[in-house]
Amino acid sequence: MADVRVVNLTKRYGRHTAVNNINFNCEDGKFFSILGPSGAGKTTTLELIAGIKKPDSGRIYIGNRLVNDLPPQERDVAMAFESYNLYPHFSVYENIAFPLRAPSRKEKLSPKEERKKVEEIAALLGIEDLLDRRPQHLSGGQRQRASLARAMIRIPKVYLLDEPISHLDAKLKVSARTTLKKLANKLRITIIYVTHDYREALGLSDRIMILNKGVNEQIGTPEEVFFSPSSDFVGRLIGDPPINLVDGAVIKREGKHFFKAQDDFAFAIRDDLVSSMEKVIWEEDGRPNVRVGIRPQHVKLSNKMISDNSFQLPVYAIEHKVGSSIVTFEMKGNLLIAQVEKGSCDTSKECWLEFDQDHLHFFKKSFALSKKARGR
Protein backbone atom coordinates (compact mmCIF):
# COMPACT_ATOMS: atom_id res chain seq x y z
CA MET A 1 0.00 0.00 0.00
CA ALA A 2 1.01 3.63 -0.35
CA ASP A 3 -0.27 7.10 0.34
CA VAL A 4 -1.38 9.40 -2.49
CA ARG A 5 -0.49 13.09 -2.48
CA VAL A 6 -1.86 15.60 -4.97
CA VAL A 7 -0.29 19.08 -5.16
CA ASN A 8 -1.82 22.02 -7.04
CA LEU A 9 -3.46 19.72 -9.58
CA THR A 10 -5.16 21.41 -12.55
CA LYS A 11 -6.78 20.04 -15.70
CA ARG A 12 -8.39 22.11 -18.45
CA TYR A 13 -10.41 21.23 -21.54
CA GLY A 14 -10.16 24.32 -23.70
CA ARG A 15 -11.63 27.16 -21.68
CA HIS A 16 -13.27 24.82 -19.18
CA THR A 17 -11.30 24.07 -16.02
CA ALA A 18 -12.36 20.59 -14.85
CA VAL A 19 -9.95 20.44 -11.89
CA ASN A 20 -8.79 23.73 -10.42
CA ASN A 21 -5.61 23.70 -8.32
CA ILE A 22 -6.68 21.03 -5.82
CA ASN A 23 -4.55 19.62 -3.02
CA PHE A 24 -5.12 16.57 -0.83
CA ASN A 25 -3.36 13.68 0.85
CA CYS A 26 -4.82 10.18 1.15
CA GLU A 27 -2.85 8.43 3.86
CA ASP A 28 -1.57 4.89 3.50
CA GLY A 29 -4.31 2.37 4.27
CA LYS A 30 -7.11 4.96 4.45
CA PHE A 31 -10.45 5.25 2.67
CA PHE A 32 -10.63 8.66 0.99
CA SER A 33 -13.80 9.72 -0.84
CA ILE A 34 -14.24 12.45 -3.44
CA LEU A 35 -17.81 13.69 -3.22
CA GLY A 36 -19.63 16.11 -5.49
CA PRO A 37 -22.42 16.52 -8.04
CA SER A 38 -22.17 15.74 -11.74
CA GLY A 39 -19.53 17.91 -13.41
CA ALA A 40 -17.61 18.59 -10.20
CA GLY A 41 -14.36 17.09 -11.53
CA LYS A 42 -14.43 13.84 -9.55
CA THR A 43 -13.79 11.38 -12.38
CA THR A 44 -11.19 13.65 -13.99
CA THR A 45 -9.26 13.70 -10.70
CA LEU A 46 -9.29 9.90 -10.58
CA GLU A 47 -8.18 9.63 -14.21
CA LEU A 48 -5.28 12.00 -13.53
CA ILE A 49 -4.13 9.84 -10.61
CA ALA A 50 -4.49 6.70 -12.73
CA GLY A 51 -2.50 8.21 -15.59
CA ILE A 52 -5.35 7.97 -18.10
CA LYS A 53 -5.16 11.74 -18.49
CA LYS A 54 -2.28 14.15 -17.99
CA PRO A 55 -2.58 17.27 -15.82
CA ASP A 56 -1.91 20.75 -17.18
CA SER A 57 -0.08 21.53 -13.95
CA GLY A 58 0.52 20.08 -10.51
CA ARG A 59 2.14 16.95 -9.12
CA ILE A 60 0.88 13.48 -8.22
CA TYR A 61 2.79 11.26 -5.80
CA ILE A 62 2.06 7.59 -5.08
CA GLY A 63 4.16 6.75 -2.08
CA ASN A 64 7.30 8.84 -2.38
CA ARG A 65 7.37 8.56 -6.18
CA LEU A 66 6.34 11.36 -8.53
CA VAL A 67 4.19 9.60 -11.13
CA ASN A 68 3.23 12.42 -13.53
CA ASP A 69 5.28 10.93 -16.38
CA LEU A 70 4.56 7.26 -15.66
CA PRO A 71 2.05 5.33 -17.81
CA PRO A 72 -0.92 3.72 -16.01
CA GLN A 73 0.60 0.22 -15.98
CA GLU A 74 3.64 1.47 -14.05
CA ARG A 75 1.69 3.24 -11.31
CA ASP A 76 0.49 -0.02 -9.69
CA VAL A 77 -3.12 1.06 -9.23
CA ALA A 78 -6.33 -0.92 -9.68
CA MET A 79 -9.31 0.83 -11.21
CA ALA A 80 -13.05 0.22 -11.31
CA PHE A 81 -15.17 2.73 -13.19
CA GLU A 82 -18.91 3.24 -13.52
CA SER A 83 -18.73 2.20 -17.19
CA TYR A 84 -17.72 -1.40 -16.24
CA ASN A 85 -14.99 -1.83 -18.95
CA LEU A 86 -15.49 -5.59 -19.06
CA TYR A 87 -14.16 -7.65 -21.98
CA PRO A 88 -17.28 -8.90 -23.82
CA HIS A 89 -15.59 -12.02 -25.26
CA PHE A 90 -14.45 -13.16 -21.78
CA SER A 91 -16.59 -14.90 -19.17
CA VAL A 92 -17.10 -13.21 -15.81
CA TYR A 93 -14.48 -15.57 -14.38
CA GLU A 94 -11.93 -14.61 -17.05
CA ASN A 95 -12.66 -10.91 -16.59
CA ILE A 96 -12.07 -11.12 -12.85
CA ALA A 97 -8.98 -13.29 -13.23
CA PHE A 98 -7.43 -11.09 -15.94
CA PRO A 99 -5.31 -8.90 -13.56
CA LEU A 100 -3.86 -12.06 -11.98
CA ARG A 101 -2.55 -13.15 -15.39
CA ALA A 102 -0.90 -9.84 -16.36
CA PRO A 103 2.66 -10.24 -17.74
CA SER A 104 3.92 -7.67 -15.23
CA ARG A 105 2.73 -9.77 -12.28
CA LYS A 106 5.76 -11.32 -10.61
CA GLU A 107 3.91 -14.03 -8.71
CA LYS A 108 2.32 -16.64 -10.97
CA LEU A 109 -0.62 -18.47 -9.45
CA SER A 110 -1.55 -22.08 -10.09
CA PRO A 111 -5.01 -22.66 -11.63
CA LYS A 112 -6.24 -23.84 -8.22
CA GLU A 113 -4.92 -20.72 -6.44
CA GLU A 114 -6.38 -18.47 -9.12
CA ARG A 115 -9.82 -20.06 -8.88
CA LYS A 116 -9.81 -19.75 -5.10
CA LYS A 117 -9.08 -16.01 -5.31
CA VAL A 118 -11.73 -15.43 -7.98
CA GLU A 119 -14.39 -17.40 -6.13
CA GLU A 120 -13.64 -15.61 -2.85
CA ILE A 121 -14.09 -12.10 -4.27
CA ALA A 122 -17.10 -13.22 -6.35
CA ALA A 123 -18.77 -14.62 -3.23
CA LEU A 124 -18.15 -11.38 -1.34
CA LEU A 125 -19.93 -9.46 -4.09
CA GLY A 126 -22.72 -11.99 -4.62
CA ILE A 127 -21.82 -13.07 -8.17
CA GLU A 128 -20.39 -16.52 -7.50
CA ASP A 129 -23.19 -18.09 -9.60
CA LEU A 130 -22.42 -15.87 -12.61
CA LEU A 131 -18.79 -16.81 -13.28
CA ASP A 132 -19.54 -18.75 -16.49
CA ARG A 133 -21.66 -16.01 -18.08
CA ARG A 134 -20.57 -13.36 -20.57
CA PRO A 135 -20.99 -9.65 -19.64
CA GLN A 136 -23.76 -9.15 -22.22
CA HIS A 137 -25.89 -11.66 -20.33
CA LEU A 138 -25.66 -9.75 -17.05
CA SER A 139 -27.80 -6.95 -15.65
CA GLY A 140 -26.26 -3.53 -15.10
CA GLY A 141 -25.84 -4.21 -11.38
CA GLN A 142 -24.23 -7.58 -12.04
CA ARG A 143 -21.77 -6.05 -14.53
CA GLN A 144 -20.86 -3.41 -11.99
CA ARG A 145 -20.13 -6.02 -9.34
CA ALA A 146 -18.00 -7.99 -11.81
CA SER A 147 -16.04 -4.83 -12.63
CA LEU A 148 -15.51 -4.15 -8.93
CA ALA A 149 -14.40 -7.76 -8.37
CA ARG A 150 -11.83 -7.47 -11.17
CA ALA A 151 -10.41 -4.30 -9.61
CA MET A 152 -10.20 -5.83 -6.14
CA ILE A 153 -8.84 -9.29 -7.08
CA ARG A 154 -5.27 -8.16 -6.53
CA ILE A 155 -3.57 -5.90 -3.98
CA PRO A 156 -2.03 -2.87 -5.72
CA LYS A 157 -0.63 0.24 -4.06
CA VAL A 158 -3.92 2.10 -4.52
CA TYR A 159 -7.51 1.28 -5.47
CA LEU A 160 -9.25 3.92 -7.60
CA LEU A 161 -13.01 3.36 -7.57
CA ASP A 162 -15.35 5.58 -9.59
CA GLU A 163 -19.03 5.19 -8.64
CA PRO A 164 -18.45 1.40 -8.43
CA ILE A 165 -21.86 0.56 -6.94
CA SER A 166 -24.05 3.32 -8.38
CA HIS A 167 -26.17 0.93 -10.48
CA LEU A 168 -26.94 -1.50 -7.67
CA ASP A 169 -30.37 -1.57 -6.09
CA ALA A 170 -30.77 -0.31 -2.52
CA LYS A 171 -30.35 -3.72 -0.87
CA LEU A 172 -27.24 -4.63 -2.85
CA LYS A 173 -25.76 -1.17 -2.22
CA VAL A 174 -25.90 -1.76 1.51
CA SER A 175 -24.25 -5.17 1.05
CA ALA A 176 -21.57 -3.78 -1.28
CA ARG A 177 -20.79 -0.89 1.09
CA THR A 178 -20.44 -3.36 3.94
CA THR A 179 -18.10 -5.50 1.81
CA LEU A 180 -15.95 -2.54 0.83
CA LYS A 181 -15.68 -1.36 4.42
CA LYS A 182 -14.84 -4.87 5.59
CA LEU A 183 -12.10 -5.25 2.97
CA ALA A 184 -10.71 -1.80 3.73
CA ASN A 185 -10.53 -2.50 7.46
CA LYS A 186 -9.20 -6.05 7.09
CA LEU A 187 -6.48 -5.38 4.52
CA ARG A 188 -5.76 -1.72 5.40
CA ILE A 189 -5.83 -0.94 1.70
CA THR A 190 -5.58 2.57 0.28
CA ILE A 191 -8.80 3.51 -1.52
CA ILE A 192 -9.74 6.68 -3.37
CA TYR A 193 -13.46 6.48 -4.00
CA VAL A 194 -15.58 8.76 -6.19
CA THR A 195 -19.28 9.15 -5.47
CA HIS A 196 -22.17 11.60 -5.78
CA ASP A 197 -23.99 9.88 -2.89
CA TYR A 198 -23.20 11.54 0.43
CA ARG A 199 -24.47 8.48 2.32
CA GLU A 200 -21.77 6.33 0.74
CA ALA A 201 -19.12 8.93 1.54
CA LEU A 202 -20.21 9.31 5.17
CA GLY A 203 -20.54 5.56 5.73
CA LEU A 204 -17.29 4.43 4.12
CA SER A 205 -14.71 7.17 4.45
CA ASP A 206 -11.95 8.08 6.83
CA ARG A 207 -11.80 11.47 5.10
CA ILE A 208 -13.85 13.20 2.40
CA MET A 209 -12.98 15.86 -0.16
CA ILE A 210 -15.94 17.79 -1.54
CA LEU A 211 -15.56 19.17 -5.06
CA ASN A 212 -17.65 21.90 -6.65
CA LYS A 213 -16.93 22.82 -10.29
CA GLY A 214 -13.36 21.60 -9.94
CA VAL A 215 -12.70 23.48 -6.71
CA ASN A 216 -12.05 21.85 -3.35
CA GLU A 217 -14.74 23.16 -0.99
CA GLN A 218 -13.75 21.15 2.10
CA ILE A 219 -11.68 18.20 3.29
CA GLY A 220 -12.50 16.55 6.58
CA THR A 221 -13.80 13.55 8.44
CA PRO A 222 -17.42 12.51 7.89
CA GLU A 223 -18.29 14.18 11.19
CA GLU A 224 -16.57 17.43 10.21
CA VAL A 225 -18.23 17.82 6.82
CA PHE A 226 -21.67 16.98 8.23
CA PHE A 227 -21.63 18.92 11.48
CA SER A 228 -19.27 21.75 10.45
CA PRO A 229 -19.80 22.43 6.72
CA SER A 230 -17.37 25.06 5.45
CA SER A 231 -19.85 26.56 2.95
CA ASP A 232 -23.52 26.65 2.07
CA PHE A 233 -22.72 24.34 -0.87
CA VAL A 234 -21.32 21.66 1.45
CA GLY A 235 -24.22 22.06 3.85
CA ARG A 236 -26.74 21.68 1.03
CA LEU A 237 -24.94 18.70 -0.56
CA ILE A 238 -24.95 16.57 2.58
CA GLY A 239 -28.14 15.60 4.37
CA ASP A 240 -31.75 14.64 3.66
CA PRO A 241 -33.95 16.55 4.23
CA PRO A 242 -31.52 19.23 3.07
CA ILE A 243 -30.19 21.93 5.34
CA ASN A 244 -32.32 25.07 5.61
CA LEU A 245 -30.61 28.15 4.19
CA VAL A 246 -32.14 31.52 5.02
CA ASP A 247 -30.76 34.94 4.06
CA GLY A 248 -31.42 37.87 6.35
CA ALA A 249 -30.22 41.11 7.82
CA VAL A 250 -28.04 41.44 10.91
CA ILE A 251 -29.40 44.09 13.26
CA LYS A 252 -27.70 45.38 16.39
CA ARG A 253 -29.96 46.70 19.14
CA GLU A 254 -29.23 47.41 22.81
CA GLY A 255 -25.91 45.56 22.62
CA LYS A 256 -27.45 42.42 21.10
CA HIS A 257 -27.25 41.05 17.55
CA PHE A 258 -30.42 39.89 15.83
CA PHE A 259 -31.04 37.95 12.64
CA LYS A 260 -34.09 39.16 10.70
CA ALA A 261 -35.45 37.13 7.78
CA GLN A 262 -37.50 39.81 5.98
CA ASP A 263 -40.92 39.95 7.66
CA ASP A 264 -40.98 36.22 8.43
CA PHE A 265 -39.19 36.06 11.77
CA ALA A 266 -36.31 37.40 13.85
CA PHE A 267 -34.27 36.06 16.74
CA ALA A 268 -31.31 37.08 18.90
CA ILE A 269 -27.92 35.59 18.04
CA ARG A 270 -26.20 34.05 21.04
CA ASP A 271 -23.22 36.18 22.12
CA ASP A 272 -20.65 33.40 21.67
CA LEU A 273 -21.69 32.96 18.01
CA VAL A 274 -21.37 36.62 16.98
CA SER A 275 -17.66 36.48 16.05
CA SER A 276 -18.13 33.52 13.67
CA MET A 277 -21.15 35.23 12.13
CA GLU A 278 -19.25 38.47 11.54
CA LYS A 279 -16.61 36.64 9.47
CA VAL A 280 -19.11 35.88 6.69
CA ILE A 281 -21.28 39.01 6.67
CA TRP A 282 -21.78 40.81 3.35
CA GLU A 283 -23.27 44.23 2.61
CA GLU A 284 -26.58 44.49 0.78
CA ASP A 285 -28.73 47.62 0.42
CA GLY A 286 -26.39 49.36 2.81
CA ARG A 287 -26.81 46.91 5.67
CA PRO A 288 -25.05 43.74 6.84
CA ASN A 289 -26.51 40.41 5.74
CA VAL A 290 -25.71 36.78 6.47
CA ARG A 291 -26.90 33.35 5.36
CA VAL A 292 -28.05 31.15 8.24
CA GLY A 293 -27.99 27.36 7.97
CA ILE A 294 -29.86 24.96 10.23
CA ARG A 295 -30.53 21.27 9.64
CA PRO A 296 -34.20 20.21 9.86
CA GLN A 297 -33.55 17.98 12.88
CA HIS A 298 -32.27 21.03 14.77
CA VAL A 299 -35.45 23.06 14.29
CA LYS A 300 -37.53 22.76 17.48
CA LEU A 301 -41.33 22.67 17.29
CA SER A 302 -43.83 23.17 20.09
CA ASN A 303 -47.46 24.10 20.61
CA LYS A 304 -46.24 26.60 23.20
CA MET A 305 -43.81 29.48 22.90
CA ILE A 306 -40.37 28.00 23.69
CA SER A 307 -38.47 31.21 24.44
CA ASP A 308 -38.15 34.81 23.30
CA ASN A 309 -36.36 33.44 20.19
CA SER A 310 -39.41 31.43 19.10
CA PHE A 311 -41.45 32.43 16.06
CA GLN A 312 -44.43 31.24 14.03
CA LEU A 313 -44.83 30.37 10.35
CA PRO A 314 -47.76 28.89 8.38
CA VAL A 315 -47.60 25.13 7.74
CA TYR A 316 -47.11 24.36 4.03
CA ALA A 317 -47.00 20.52 4.06
CA ILE A 318 -46.55 17.56 6.40
CA GLU A 319 -44.96 14.20 5.57
CA HIS A 320 -45.12 11.41 8.14
CA LYS A 321 -42.34 8.83 8.25
CA VAL A 322 -41.63 5.93 10.61
CA GLY A 323 -40.86 7.58 13.94
CA SER A 324 -40.66 11.15 12.59
CA SER A 325 -42.56 13.84 10.75
CA ILE A 326 -41.21 16.31 8.23
CA VAL A 327 -43.05 19.61 8.48
CA THR A 328 -42.53 22.27 5.81
CA PHE A 329 -43.31 25.88 6.65
CA GLU A 330 -43.92 28.71 4.21
CA MET A 331 -41.96 31.94 4.17
CA LYS A 332 -41.94 34.80 1.70
CA GLY A 333 -40.28 33.22 -1.34
CA ASN A 334 -38.84 30.42 0.76
CA LEU A 335 -39.61 27.16 2.53
CA LEU A 336 -38.32 26.00 5.90
CA ILE A 337 -38.22 22.34 6.94
CA ALA A 338 -38.34 20.77 10.40
CA GLN A 339 -37.87 17.09 11.17
CA VAL A 340 -39.31 16.17 14.55
CA GLU A 341 -40.28 13.11 16.52
CA LYS A 342 -43.68 11.87 15.43
CA GLY A 343 -46.45 13.26 17.63
CA SER A 344 -44.18 15.75 19.42
CA CYS A 345 -46.18 18.70 18.09
CA ASP A 346 -49.76 18.99 16.90
CA THR A 347 -49.35 21.01 13.71
CA SER A 348 -53.09 21.48 13.37
CA LYS A 349 -52.86 23.88 16.30
CA GLU A 350 -50.75 26.96 16.88
CA CYS A 351 -47.14 25.95 16.22
CA TRP A 352 -43.94 27.64 17.43
CA LEU A 353 -40.48 27.17 15.91
CA GLU A 354 -37.02 27.82 17.28
CA PHE A 355 -33.50 27.17 15.95
CA ASP A 356 -31.17 25.18 18.20
CA GLN A 357 -28.23 27.59 18.26
CA ASP A 358 -25.83 24.82 19.27
CA HIS A 359 -26.21 23.72 15.63
CA LEU A 360 -26.51 27.07 13.88
CA HIS A 361 -24.26 27.77 10.87
CA PHE A 362 -23.33 31.05 9.18
CA PHE A 363 -22.28 31.19 5.53
CA LYS A 364 -21.31 33.60 2.83
CA LYS A 365 -23.74 33.55 -0.08
CA SER A 366 -22.23 31.35 -2.81
CA PHE A 367 -25.39 30.79 -4.87
CA ALA A 368 -28.84 32.30 -5.23
CA LEU A 369 -31.66 30.64 -3.35
CA SER A 370 -34.87 29.87 -5.19
CA LYS A 371 -38.11 28.39 -4.01
CA LYS A 372 -37.73 25.49 -6.44
CA ALA A 373 -34.21 24.74 -5.16
CA ARG A 374 -35.35 24.84 -1.56
CA GLY A 375 -38.41 22.71 -2.06
CA ARG A 376 -38.40 19.01 -1.33
Textual characterization of the structure:
This protein is α+β, with helices and mostly antiparallel strands. It has two domains: 4-237, P-loop containing nucleotide triphosphate hydrolases (Rossmann fold); 244-367, Nucleic acid-binding proteins (OB fold (Dihydrolipoamide Acetyltransferase, E2P)). It has ten helices and 21 strands. It has helices at 42-50, 92-97, 111-124, 140-152, 170-187, 198-204, 222-227, 232-237, 274-278, 371-374; strands at residues 4-13, 16-26, 31-35, 57-62, 65-66, 77-80, 158-162, 191-195, 207-212, 215-220, 244-253, 256-261, 265-268, 282-284, 287-294, 299-302, 315-321, 324-331, 334-341, 352-355, 361-363. The protein has a six-stranded mixed sheet, sandwiched between helices. Strands 11, 12, 13, 14, 15 and 21 form a six-stranded antiparallel sheet that branches. Strands 2-1-4-5 form a four-stranded antiparallel sheet, covered by helices on one side. The longest helix is centred in the middle third of the chain and has 18 residues, at 170-187. The protein starts with a strand and ends with a helix.
